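Entry for the shared binder. Reason: the reviewer on the internal report wants the predicted structure included alongside the sequence.
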Amino acid sequence: MPRTAAPPPTSAPRDRRRTSASVVLRSVLEHGPVARSTIARLTGLSPASVTDYCARFTELGLIRETEVPQRLKGVGRPHVPVDLDDSRFVVGGVHVAVPYTTVALLDLRGRVVVRRELKHRDTDPRGVLTRAAAGLAALLGEVPGSRPLGIGVAVGGWVDRDSGTVVEHPLLGWREVPVRELLGAHTGLPVHVDGHARALVNGERLFGRARGSRSVLHLFVGNVVDAAFATGDEVHHGPRSQAGMITHLPVPGGTEPCGCGRTGCLQVELSERTLVRRARAAGVTDGANPMDVLAAAGAGDPAAAGLLVERARLTGRAAALLLDVLNPESVVVTEVGVLYREDCLRALREAVGTERAAVVAPTSFGASVLAVAGGSVVLDVLYRDPLSASSPTAPAAAPTAAPAAAPALSPELI
């Protein structure tokens, strides 16, 4: 009888260690300042294991002991709570939209420290990413003493997280762009890349209203319209991260012709390009910025308000379709009208239906949502595997500015 090969060594111990480290750091994020004994009770880990992980996180600079010990019920040894140390590290966030790129630095709580918008001169990916690297370098110069742990990049379209590649983004004209490779070469830092809807699902679960939800749907409505769904602690990616592409979902009553040959596809109906084109036709604005439509509505223009409310209503119909299919516990919508106007939020919820309206909410991050999207990509990696993502062997150098041969940044853009 032929001998059989020995089974390959299992990675289970390493996976358990990574999972345990993750739940401990997440507990500090969610409950800090918190006693180690409380972390043990919340996580089900032994007090000794929690103490070991907290000691390691303290060495890495991720957590710190608070100054005032807490004595529980007035007896026994005082408990010294631990909390996140948000004074040492930052992460870089890059969100590439159709008209501009947002660059930002975030702390470990997902709060935006500083951000800039870099308007595109063109959409050549090498130029866009070179300018993003230079923009991050300029931001780091504004927060001296902070050490960058890595960079997260969020982009619309089809994004393959595993390879760090934008497979296809028709509005930017990008195809098979190796974002991780290009941006990493400029910065010397770990770079993580994902679609912006999935990035924001992770941001909401870590830092937003969806914390604690067992399942979350995120619907992103900008120039690109896409969605992401998380259940348990995992966002669904699908083969080559193609899940969430709802561009051609049919919208009942839609009238816009789509490049696919059909009429009423979701993205062409809800796109910001469609919104501002309709606003120009109605005499609301002569520009291409959706914020101008919002400003006009705020100034009392009924045509502008009507356009925004109708867009929110169509967004609600799309959300209702996705709710029927996925039945999530909570739904988060990123859409400009819903974010800033109560009439748009009401229209969204009415379209979803009164029995499910309570589960639908606007993004938790307000005007910072694009900056948070980029940062959430890398912060999700940190909170999933904190011992590896914050390893002292990771590059500590700040991103470098663009090479001499690249176009210099104008002062107003840095």
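Summary line for the report: The chain is about 40% helix and 20% strand.
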